[in-house]
Design goal:
Largest sheet: none
CATH topology: Ferritin
CATH architecture: Up-down Bundle
Number of helices: 7
CATH class: Mainly Alpha
Order of helices and strands: HHHHHHH
Number of domains: 1
Shape: elongated
Structural class: mainly alpha
CATH superfamily: Ferritin, core subunit, four-helix bundle
Strand content: under 5%
Number of strands: 0
Helix content: over 70%
């Protein structure tokens, strides 16, 4: 292994200027940046609606003395709000405006807010698992669509996806037990 490091700072500066002049990453790699921003705004809506649903379910579980379920929903609600903010930050990095308008959140979300009327909490948990599986599937498709054309956004979606998969798995275990 060589002990010396020779950096061509002039070349690095030139390439950095060229990269900056080329515009957002998505544009440089053949993706329509406006379409990426639109898709990401739907992810924001999905995560905010999920945060609302998980927060409501956490409160309902607390009311029924379901401590493990309550903790899972509280943790998931926290994750979903962090996801929404991280995705909104990526939208801003791409030159877009995060769309948090409450009037359209439910229409843009991949999942619905629906809360079962059933008195039994199991129906609520099943509805949550369904919403989680829908989110997992849509995020998998988004990650595939982004591919190598916008690796930063793809990695962000994959991180959100991993959290969603973990929560869906934990919920499935609770339902089975």
């Amino acid at each position: 292994m060589s002990e010396s490091l020779a950096l061509d700072v002039d070349r690095i500066r030139r390439e950095a200027r060229q990269t900056m002049a080329a515009g957002p990453v998505a544009d440089r790699h053949g993706l329509d940046t406006e379409r990426v921003i639109s898709v990401l705004n739907d992810v924001v809506a999905t995560e905010v609606v999920g945060w609302l649903r998980s927060t409501r379910h956490a409160l309902a579980a607390r009311g029924q003395d379901l401590d493990r379920v309550n903790r899972l929903y509280e943790e998931h609600a926290d994750q979903e709000m962090r996801h929404a903010v991280a995705v909104a930050e990526r939208i801003a990095q791409l030159g877009g405006r995060p769309h948090f308008d409450p009037a359209t959140l439910a229409q843009r979300a991949h999942t619905d807010y629906g809360v079962p009327d059933a008195a039994e909490f199991r129906a609520t948990m099943e509805q949550s698992l369904l919403a989680g599986r829908i989110a997992v599937s849509t995020y998998q498709e988004i990650a595939r669509w982004l591919g190598d054309r916008d690796p930063d956004t793809r990695r962000l979606i994959e991180a959100v996806l991993a959290d969603e998969e973990g929560t869906a798995d934990a919920l499935a275990v609770l339902l089975a037990g």
